[in-house]
Structures are given as C-alpha cells and as structure tokens.
Write a structure and sequence with these properties.
The chain is an alpha+beta fold. It folds into two domains: about 120 residues, Impact, N-terminal domain (Ribosomal Protein S5, domain 2); about 60 residues, Alpha-Beta Plaits. It has five helices and eleven strands. The strands form three sheets. Strands 2-3-6-4-5 form a five-stranded antiparallel β-sheet, sandwiched between helices. The chain has a four-stranded antiparallel β-sheet with strand order 9-10-8-11, with no helix packed on it. A two-stranded antiparallel sheet has the order 1-7. β2 and β3 form a beta hairpin. α2 packs parallel to α3.
Length: about 190
C-alpha cells in the first residue's frame, strides 16, 4: 500500500465543466468530516462534491447527486488501482452547461483523479506495531542497547522517559525484555 506525502490540487476542464481534484492524506474519520466541510465552504458555488476515501480497511464512495455510479466509484477505482490508503479524494465539479452523459462523467472523474495523482509523491506504507512505554532514567542505557536496531518514533524526557518505537513484527525479544525489566508497555497496530 502507498500514501500520498503531500496534499494535491488539480484542475481539469471537460466540455466547459471544471473538475477540481483535491487529494488529502487522512488519519481518521474526523479528518474526512472536517475536510469535506472546509471544501464545501471554499467552493460554495460548486454543483457537486463527489468523493471517495480509503482509510485502513474502510472504502467509501459518494456520487453527491451525479447519476449513480458515475462519480464516486470511478474516483475510488483509481485510488484502489494505485494501491493507496489513508487518502481522501474530493472532485469538485462546476457544471459547464453541456451534459456529459454517464460514460462521459465516468471518464472525466477518473481522468481528473489520475491527473492529480501524477503530481503526488507516493510513499510505501509499512505495516507494523507501535510500542509505547516509559521507564526510569537508570534503565536508559539498557533500553537504548535493546532498541538500537529499531525505529524510535519519539523519546520524551520528563519525570520518566517516554519511548515510542516501531516494530515490523511483534518481536518477542523486545517485548520479553520489557517484561523482564518490569516495564509496562502498550502495543498498537499501525501503518507507517
């Protein structure tokens, strides 16, 4: 799977209709709702706000008043073919006075998204686990040697040291060592 590194805006004109494609990297459902509200405020006079998103295992498409299956599904199809995740794609349409027909709409929405993706920088997503824990300062040398070969996402020095590390797999050695040191930890499945 891949994610976009930067948000994208692209415009396409098809028979006087303007299609503005907006691509967003998203983390949760709240991101989707907030972005949709902002887009509707920023493009108030648009005819349609068709969109699709893929968020982890959830896929959704919305035609927003276009004939059924002519906008949202073609948008989602392009996202799926590019193996994207954690992405919201909104295509804002300003009707130009010439009807495109079902086939024309499908082609226009698909082309609009494909052109926007040409501008995007894509990065591979790595499935794994984020392990968070905190420890006393006297264990810092032991922990640093234990996690030396792992990606440290954060290290915060407060009353205790709070670590967040990324593991490709639930590495028994790291978790066993944390247990042996009586360090409580939390594990969360994540994509990076």
């Amino acid at each position: 799977m891949k994610v976009i590194e930067n948000n994208i805006k692209n415009e396409l004109i098809v028979k006087n209709s303007k299609f503005i494609t907006l691509l967003y990297n998203i983390k949760n459902q709240e991101d989707i709702n907030n972005i949709l509200m902002d887009v509707k405020k920023n493009y108030k006079k648009a005819t349609h706000y068709c969109y699709a998103y893929i968020l982890d295992d959830i896929k959704y498409a919305n035609d927003d008043g276009e004939p059924s299956g002519t906008a949202g599904p073609p948008i989602l199809n392009v996202l799926e073919k590019n193996k994207l995740t954690n992405i919201l794609c909104i295509v804002v349409r300003y009707y130009g006075g010439i009807k495109l027909g079902a086939g024309g709409l499908i082609r226009a929405y698909g082309k609009s998204v494909r052109e926007a993706l040409l501008q995007a920088t894509l990065k591979d997503v790595i499935d794994g686990y984020v392990v968070t824990f905190e420890l006393d300062y006297d264990l810092i040398t032991t922990i640093n040697s234990l996690i030396n070969n792992y990606k440290v996402l954060s290290k915060v020095f407060e009353e205790k040291i709070k670590y967040s590390i990324f593991l490709d797999t639930l590495d028994d050695e790291v978790l066993r060592s944390l247990n042996e040191l009586n360090i409580k930890y939390e594990v969360e499945k994540k994509c990076l």
